[in-house]
Design brief:
152 residues, alpha/beta, Rossmann fold, 5-stranded parallel sheet, binds 1,3,4-trihydroxy-5-OXO-cyclohexanecarboxylic acid
Length: 152
């Protein structure tokens, strides 16, 4: 497997609480369930998928920085840091990897403070409101892109 077919799925704060946190918003499945789905969907698409979660902004910044040259792309659900973190925006800009921003919930149907994302200007695309299917769609889009298809 070449480096370009490796994808890092990154989760930000409180996403380790999936299944226990507001199941009416985020569903009843756990982060481990979601990460297993990402690895198996990735495998079916010819991707090697690694998954990491952190509640710490600096750790996410470091993982994004280190992903350059190791991974071909990123799937990023930065949780609440989506709406606050210029540092994550800058890390994505610095590393330049194709990134798909994903949110389980439809952030535009929720509080107005969730409507702005510092991640989106650095993302190839944004998916929200589709739950786990959003990750399936993100991995499919990245696989097609990494194989040379730019979107047609
Ligand atoms: C979230 C949406 C964010 O607004 C929130 O802070 C999260 C999860 C989502 O997946 O829907 O932690 O990124």
């Amino acid at each position: 497997m070449t480096d370009t077919m490796r994808v890092l799925v990154l989760h930000g704060p409180n996403l380790n609480m999936l299944g226990r946190r507001a199941p009416e918003v985020y569903g009843s499945a756990s982060l481990a369930d979601l990460e297993n789905l990402c690895r198996s969907e990735g495998e079916a698409l010819g991707l090697e998928v690694d998954c990491r979660q952190s509640n710490h902004e600096g750790e996410l910044v470091e993982w994004i920085q280190q992903a350059g040259g190791v991974y071909g792309g990123l799937v990023l659900n930065a949780g609440a840091y989506t709406h606050t973190s210029i540092a994550l925006h800058d890390a994505l800009e610095a590393v330049g990897l194709p990134t798909i921003e994903v949110h389980l919930s439809n952030i535009f149907k929720r509080e107005s403070f969730r409507h702005h994302s510092y991640i989106s200007p650095q993302a190839v695309g944004v998916i929200c409101g589709l739950g786990f299917d959003g990750y399936r769609a993100a991995l499919l889009a990245l696989a097609r892109r990494l194989k040379g298809n730019k979107g047609a």
